[in-house]
């Protein structure tokens, strides 16, 4: 295991590199907030001394805000945050515009294509509520994230409002405000202009009074003040409509008793920015050096890294990059294990798997899908940056150790002062690679250093080849179970590269295979270590469909096959039987193939299909026949070919409706609802797990994250590591002991729940998981 901290019992200190999402509250800001709760707790509207003291805090903060944003003229209104400021600006501009609308003219509302969602969503909202019916148009950006000035010049004459941002939250890209100002005003002197300044505060100089900006929104929690405090700038005489009416606070522009703790904290931060405090922020010049240091560590750790923005036109505190071959989720998991917090895409929509900002900049899809953002604030210290850089390199080393990357010499030998490369993590047996609902399978025989790849997906081709090189494995064969209709196989390209000498058929079955006799029938087989891989023709889904049985060698024709894994393509899938309405499908052939499999593989051999639509990983005939009545009827010969065909054709008709965007390769059986109903698994929290461990003498605690995450950090009690990619192998090893108690853990409880459900479905009786994972429990 990589030793990141000297004492593994001690959790690693947190390196927080997600300041653009939010920041911690600095101690001096927190203490100012606390004092307004305990001592200076007055209501700024009260006229007694306690009230006057509170009002003084509000007034001081307002004055400071004016200085910081360079707005001697104009108003500062305190809000709950930037989203409220944005709403208020848009409402104000549109209410004003509505009064003078010319019904015969068409209008637009313009916003930058890389704007935070708060902007286009608010525009849509108020445009509809106020029945303005203007066309909402995104202003394109170039590959550097800069707004298209020609578009603005052309469109702004008909615009009621234009919304731009000073600094982008995903890339740190800043706009040339003066050039924007000239372009806007040269073409429309009166249009309302709002600038989202959230990510600019404390990171660039602002002089709003020198511009024609009408509204600007700011947020406290992006700069070390608490959540729930923000402010907006409104240019002198700009139209204004309060969004909240009531007691008349903020001169009637934003009612509601002031958030005094938030304001006191904000005032502390402002004091630091203005040099009025003993504490100070790191100068921008140094922040640039920090970013360079991070860039250098990242490049050393991941030589293939691509940065998604230019450093010339972005603030020093943001880095956005992608690492070829790794999804954002994988890098987030890796960094989380190294206790470095980063984000993928935008934190406000962390479920989104690609970045609309990078899409708008026209970056290639893979960069947008794998984007990682590292951001820090001006309170960052040299020590934290040093630790971050060390950790980044350690994290990359963990990937090298588990053969996900080959690494570089510099990582392998020189840089790891606290960490030394230990042996690569073991790899033997079956590995499952999943891409969406599709699966590829790698089987490794350690003794002979040979490997077999089945149903290769292009997305995992690079990773597989890295793994083979890193472990010095020889590829024996790369085989497709059929010609896939829903995705491209990369079989040919892998075979060309790694098996150039091998003669094979169109699916990759080697021409020099031997034959064996099973129950009087001849089948071809190849040898892999101490196992045989037998090819069985199983047409039905397509006419070329085959199944590959990895089994013990056969010594006698009549003996029962000992099948370890049955790679049966799309013949039998979890909760379904392969689709049979392609041009080369045949339901009678499928009936015979299913019956043949029944006689060859038995009820409990593990089936490894080419799809896993519901995260069930693997199955066996016994499990399938419980939930899949049609399969049961075939296997028990309760129906004949005709009846099977007519039922199957009906089922396949529904497949298009069930498919959605993906071409589904399995027709779900009639009781899909019950088949897909997830097994209920026991959920532990730290307290109940501690109790359960004390009570049970043989409970096994398993960390089911990937080996590189486990190597970086894990709880000592979770002595076993069974990554999800090896779950099927684990099932095989544990199949004889389904009563054993297991508790699974992962980063946040998602993967452990999936694995526990899958094991439960396969008849494991005592599998639970730690709900919320390591994220919520220091178990
Ligand atoms: N605008 C930008 C650029 C942001 O980054 C954010 C927060 O992510 C917001 C607006 C919304 O700010 P708040 O959380 O204060 O409402």
Automatic annotation (TrEMBL):
It comes from the Bacteria. The keyword Transferase applies. GO terms for molecular function: cysteine desulfurase activity; iron-sulfur cluster binding; metal ion binding; transaminase activity. Residues 695-779 form the Rhodanese domain. Belongs to the class-V pyridoxal-phosphate-dependent aminotransferase family. NifS/IscS subfamily. The keyword Transferase applies. Keywords: Aminotransferase, Iron, Iron-sulfur, Metal-binding, Pyridoxal phosphate, Transferase. InterPro entries: Aminotrans_V_dom, Aminotrans_V_PyrdxlP_BS, Metallo-B-lactamas, PyrdxlP-dep_Trfase, PyrdxlP-dep_Trfase_major, PyrdxlP-dep_Trfase_small, Rhodanese-like_dom, Rhodanese-like_dom_sf. Pfam families: Aminotran_5, Rhodanese. Its cofactor is pyridoxal 5'-phosphate. This is cysteine desulfurase. It catalyses: (sulfur carrier)-H + L-cysteine = (sulfur carrier)-SH + L-alanine. SMART domains: Lactamase_B, RHOD. Its EC number is 2.8.1.7. PANTHER family: CYSTEINE DESULFURASE, CYSTEINE DESULFURYLASE FAMILY MEMBER.
